[in-house]
Write a structure and sequence with these properties.
It is a single chain. About 10% of the residues lie in helices and about 35% in strands. It has helices at about 15-25, 150-160; strands at about 10-15, 40-45, 50, 55-60, 65, 70-75, 80-90, 110-115, 120, 130-135, 140-145, 170, 180, 185-190, 195-205. Strands 1, 2, 3, 6, 7, 8, 9 and 12 form an eight-stranded mixed β-sheet that branches.
């Protein structure tokens, strides 16, 4: 378990403008027939959590893993943010970004959780967060959180209209398009000023 996150972790889909642009007309097709009007959430249960430095097992039938560098708001109380933490929302690549099946998101160990909480303060502006993603030391992606559809404050307000996040719960802000791919043997590190770094190594799942 995490010392930073003690409740439930929620992921957010389609909260980067690039994600919606990449979907194109897919959001207008059945069964939904329009872009989402409220946040699209999913849960990363405790079996998916991996601490900084942990090895993450990859099933034999998964040749590549998608890296999902993001930042999560950690709650102090309902409607009150304690601070922010790095997360790496690994998943199995899937053809659609729009509501992918749970089995692609919730494999054992497939959520790296950072060990450093950046406390919320007036000096911390989440829209200025920039996360760098490195695979085996090579820079593969830079994620700028100024490109969100819903700012962290707006995302929390919209989610709070239909559910309550309690102390220790975490709400990920989303993952941008252009997510790097990694494979067994790769070391994946994400980092951001003030938030430190989060590193995990992908290993073959035991038979």
């Amino acid at each position: 378990m995490s010392d930073v996150v003690t409740g439930t972790v929620f992921g957010t889909l389609l909260n980067f403008r690039g994600e919606l642009d990449a979907l194109g007309d897919e959001v207008n097709q059945p069964p939904y027939k329009s872009p989402p009007r409220a946040p699209v959430l999913y849960i990363k249960p405790a079996n998916t959590w991996s601490a900084d430095g942990a090895e993450i097992p990859v099933p034999a039938n998964v040749p590549q893993v998608e890296v999902g560098a993001t930042i999560a708001m950690v709650m102090k109380a309902p409607g009150e943010v304690a601070g922010y933490v790095l997360m790496n929302d690994f998943s199995v690549p899937h053809q659609s970004l729009f509501r992918p099946p749970v089995k692609y998101k919730c494999l054992d160990g497939f959520l790296g959780v950072g060990g450093r909480l950046l406390a919320r303060s007036d000096a911390v502006e989440p829209s200025g967060f920039v996360v760098e993603v490195r695979v085996n030391g090579e820079l593969k992606q830079t994620v700028a959180f100024g490109h969100l559809v819903r700012s962290p404050a707006q995302l929390l307000a919209d989610v709070s209209e239909f559910m309550t996040l309690g102390a220790g719960d975490a709400l990920m802000l989303g993952c941008d398009v252009g997510r790097p791919l990694a494979k067994v043997g790769d070391r994946v590190e994400i980092s951001a000023p003030g938030l430190g770094s989060l590193s995990n190594t992908l290993v073959a799942e035991a038979a």
